[in-house]
Design goal:
By secondary structure, this protein is α/β, with parallel strands linked by helices. 30% of the residues lie in helices and 19% in strands. The protein is built from six helices and ten strands; from the N terminus they run E-H-E-H-E-H-E-H-E-H-E-E-E-H-E-E. It is globular, with a radius of gyration of 18 Å. The model has no long low-confidence stretch (mean pLDDT 92).
Length: 217
């Protein structure tokens, strides 16, 4: 049985790294990463190569035709770009459509919020989602809530510093609003299951570990 070819965009980042791990744990995937030519020799990229990730050189800001060539033969594209690069996914989606990609996973991976002036980043992502739908490009949008690693306060002793990406010492409102939470390390395992499930095609999926309030945390 042939393996599913998955291309990661942003594979060296926090979310991308988790997804790379989740895919590499499963022998059913052939993992590729889109990397800018100038970044190929960076230690994080070399480390991915050493673990079996195949590198495809390309630039989201390059010609759409070149991107389409890079995506040829890829079954699933998973985008994990940064907040400032959300709109760069639009030419990526066009290239994926041209290349015959079977499923496009835009960079969601945040908490659920309604579009329209509530959360700037959500609005940026929704613009991309709408464009993907207009292209009639098969997609799955995955939200995961807040990372555990962003959701607890720093202890004075520093004992938990190793596990956090950013300390959260602020209580919003009365602290009793339920929050969906996910361990960063689990995101990749969820993605590995979601992208091969036919039930999730052209759907929004909310995957998370647990629900707690800030006061409970």
């Amino acid at each position: 049985m042939s393996r599913t070819r998955v291309l990661l965009v942003g594979a060296a980042g926090e979310t991308g790294g988790s997804i790379a791990n989740g895919l590499l744990e499963n022998p059913g995937f052939e993992v590729h990463a889109l990397v800018r030519p100038r970044s190929v020799q960076k230690p994080a990229i070399v480390a991915l190569q050493e673990r079996g990730v195949q590198i495809r050189k390309g630039d989201l800001k390059g010609p759409e035709e070149s991107l389409a060539d890079v995506l040829t033969g890829i079954d699933v594209v998973v985008s994990c770009v940064g907040p400032a690069e959300q709109q760069d996914q639009i030419p990526l989606a066009k290239a994926a459509k041209s290349a015959g990609v079977q499923r496009f996973i835009p960079c969601g991976f945040i908490t659920v919020a309604p579009p329209g002036g509530i959360m700037w980043l959500r609005d940026e992502k929704e613009t991309v989602y709408n464009h993907i739908k207009q292209l009639r490009l098969p997609y799955t949008i995955i939200d995961i809530g807040w990372w555990y690693q962003l959701s607890y306060p720093r202890l004075g002793s520093g004992r938990t510093d190793y596990a956090m990406t950013t300390a959260n010492n602020e209580i919003v409102g009365d602290g009793n609003t339920p929050l969906a939470l996910t361990d960063l390390r689990d995101i990749g395992r969820y993605v590995a299951k979601i992208i091969v499930d036919d039930r999730t095609l052209n759907k929004m999926v909310f995957a998370y570990n647990t629900v707690l309030t800030q006061n409970q945390i």
